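<instruction>
Derive structure tokens from the sequence
<data>
Labelled lines for chain and fold:
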Amino acid sequence: MAMEAGLDLVEVAPQARPPVCKILDYGKFKYEQKKKQSRSKTASSVLKEIRVRPKIDTHDLEIKIKKARAFLEEGHKVQVTCLFRGREFVYKEIGREKMLRVVEACSDIARIEREPRMEGRRMILLMSRKAGVPTKPKAGAPAPVDTAGTSRAPAEGEAAAASEERTGEARSAEEASGTGSPAAGDGQAAPEASSGGA
């Protein structure tokens, strides 16, 4: 049957009981397996990008540095890109200084793999983790659960419901004591000024 179709009989899963075989093109099958293996190998070291501008503020730059450090600690390479728009292109040195501040802040865990260089209107620098620096696990692990329930902050919906409950209680207490304001809706309307019919 496989010979009639011009294909091969390939054992796909030899460990399964009974073994699984398919009729397919063996060359194409091997190519796809090789492609899957190469994809899984490259996924361990991902290139992450941090974008800065020549006019970036110090606090914004600090946040970018924290992100770059986190990426490096996870074992990823970091590409720092400085974008120049319009007349900023004239002040390349300011952008270079910002990029070197990122490198300086990460110098204890990173090394420069590629020096800053211009590519069109962008200046690009590549950093990677130094050898011997341990990697940290990825962020996103579940947070510890508070079993006592005392220090837990209320969720947004819970806070809004509690706020409405408190204002309702305060309103009913004011009505009961008779200290409600006229605008609160106790039946008295504010006098309106009427103008002469002009």
